[in-house]
Specification:
Elements: H1 2-23, E1 34-38, H2 47-63, E2 69-74, H3 80-93, E3 97-100, H4 109-117, E4 121-126, H5 132-135, E5 138-141, H6 144-158, E6 163-168, H7 175-188, E7 194-200, H8 206-220, E8 224-229, H9 232-244, E9 251-253, E10 255-256, H10 259-267, E11 273-275, H11 278-293, E12 305-307, E13 311-313
Helix pairs in contact: 2-11, 3-4, 6-7, 8-9
């Protein structure tokens, strides 16, 4: 019996050491803390500053000895299969934590589930996949449904007489596209004085949104009062297309608060934008990781979710957000 107790004590000690190793960030127990980072892409204006923040911050965490290595920015190319391949690379490399900004809710989900199944602490940020809330270690993002309600309410407040409007979508199936559309409809569908006359598959593209705006102006003329966009690459391009035809009365609004739309708001060329703090979303996930490595408690809103608020930016407060 004494021998069994001794063996049991040794087993408990080994288990305790494993728990301590994990709490110190070495999740897989290989003696180093390695972090992976899978971007959505390296090209669009919203994700550029996020990727730059990742490079600066993870390099500093390596220099400070908080983590040992990181993968550098892996280009997701806004393609789910590319993100899945990058996730498999992170598994092979023995990453303890991986940050991923999914390009699609469903198609990018295997990237998240495969890493979680491999024991990696997955930090999903900016937008969710279908199983993020169940399998990811942390989600850090913003309430995209609320963003959609801000878009719709701005149009209601600035077009009191109603009229025709079009909606420019992000990539169909992306969680932000789905949820912002839901929020927009929750507001706009309650008002019979407004009619959505086109629901365009504009894929986050300013060029496609500008074309959609030009087509709507040609078809509906003075009846067109608003263009609601899922992001600001599209809203700024759509507004510029309207302004070029002398139709600066058409209300265009989108989400992100990139530098160009902020400058347009300041110049009076765009009425408003809904600011999304993408760098703040990433940083919230990084803060959670560093707290975990240091064994510190984390304050979370609900389960493993950290939320960064959206902000409506107009001429009244744009100076607070312009760089």
């Amino acid at each position: 019996m004494k021998k069994l107790l001794v063996l049991s004590g040794a087993a408990v000690l080994a288990m305790s050491m494993a728990v301590c190793a994990e709490s110190a960030g070495d999740v897989n127990g290989d003696g180093i803390i390695k972090v992976g980072y899978i971007s959505k892409n390296l090209t669009d204006p919203f994700h550029g500053p996020i990727n730059a923040h990742a490079e600066e911050t993870f390099d500093q965490l390596v220099a400070d000895g908080v983590i040992d290595e990181w993968t550098g920015v892996l280009d997701g190319q806004t393609m789910a299969d590319v993100q899945i391949n990058a996730a498999n690379d992170c598994i092979t490399l023995g990453c303890d934590y991986v940050f991923i900004a999914p390009c699609e809710a469903e198609a990018s989900d295997p990237a998240v589930t495969q890493m979680a199944d491999a024991g990696i602490k997955v930090v999903v940020f900016n937008s969710m996949t279908t199983s993020t809330e169940e399998v990811a270690w942390v989600f850090s993002g913003s309430d995209d449904v609320y963003a959609g309600t801000l878009l719709g309410q701005w149009v209601l407040d600035n077009c009191p007489d109603g009229g025709k409007y079009i909606h420019c979508n992000g990539i169909l199936g992306n969680s932000a596209q789905i949820q912002r559309t839901e929020g927009m409809h929750s507001v706009m569908d309650e008002h019979e004085e407004f009619e959505m006359v086109a629901d365009e598959d504009t894929q986050w593209s300013g060029e496609k949104a500008a074309t959609a705006a030009e087509n709507a102006l040609a078809q509906y003329g003075e009846e067109l009062v608003a263009i609601i966009c899922d992001n600001d690459d599209m809203s700024s391009a759509a507004q510029s297309a309207c302004n070029a035809q002398g139709r600066n009365d058409v209300i265009c609004i989108g989400v992100d608060g990139n530098q160009t739309p902020l400058e347009m708001v300041k110049a009076g060329e765009l009425g408003a934008t809904v600011l999304q703090d993408g760098v703040g979303q990433l940083q919230a996930g990084i803060d959670a990781m560093v707290a975990d490595i240091n064994g510190e408690p984390q304050e979370q809103e609900a389960g493993n979710i950290f939320m960064v608020p959206f902000v409506l930016v107009t001429a009244e407060n744009v100076d607070e957000y312009l760089k």
